[in-house]
Amino acid sequence: MVKKSVAEILGTFILVFFGVGSAVLMGAHIGLLGIAIAFGLSIVAAAYGLGAISGAHLNPAVSLGVLIAGRMSAAEFILYVISQIVGATLAAAVVYLIATGRPEFDIAVNGLGQNGWGAGYGDGYGLTAAFVFELVATFLFVTVILGATHGRAPVGFAGLAIGLTLAGIHLVGIAVTGVSVNPARSFGPALLVGGQAMSQLWLFFVAPLLGGALAGVLHVAGVTRPD
């Protein structure tokens, strides 16, 4: 269990460091496409580097789907979620520390890759659009994960399929919410930014967890299970 916890901390650190780091440190240079690719590559890296230890969930919504699918215990779920939040917060802190090396960086102005919606964020999409996007995108993401890691799925390709799916989700939704589909990924930056990021954080817990739960329920029901 200790090894699994460490793997989830490190894996979630990789996800946030690659993804949020690309947005904060290199966003002006690589654009939205580059950020989407960075998030996708982070999953590939963590999945192949640490997946053999913990499964590389890196995401409470994924762990919830796996729990409902009967592939982990409640105790493991709690441990995974705590580890994921720790990893995401540590990574956000490191990105912030690096970002402050640029004299003109101001977290209140530049942000820290936090998720959000409404006026002044992204393209100004409203609450309903943000909620629907996060729920649907997380449902699709967790559905792919449960299918790609099933015993009947092609061996050795799960990490690639999952990473490409996350990149695709970012190509669709960065302008809507910045793309969470992951409560831990949202928590780390929001904790450091505070203000609106923290006040809107509830959506990036509720919608992804609902999406992950729905994916788990349909998998258990056999609707999306490949057997």
Give an overview in words:
This is Aquaporin. InterPro entries: Aquaporin-like, Aquaporin_transptr, MIP, MIP_CS. It is a multi-pass membrane protein. With 227 residues, the chain is mainly α. It has one domain: Glycerol uptake facilitator protein. The chain is 74% helix and 0% strand. It is built from nine helices and no strands. α2 packs antiparallel against α3, α5 runs antiparallel to α6 and α7 packs antiparallel against α9. The mean pLDDT is 94.
Question: Helices and strands in order, then pairings?
Answer:
Layout: H1 2-54, H2 60-68, H3 74-99, H4 107-110, H5 127-148, H6 158-177, H7 183-193, H8 196-199, H9 203-220
> How many angstroms separate the termini?
29 Å
| CATH evolutionary superfamily | Glycerol uptake facilitator protein
Task: Report the top-level CATH class.
Answer: Mainly Alpha
Order of helices and strands: HHHHHHHHH
Name some characteristics of this structure:
227 residues; mainly alpha; Glycerol uptake facilitator protein
Task: Tell me briefly what this model is.
The chain is mainly alpha-helical and 227 residues long. The protein is 74% helix and 0% strand.
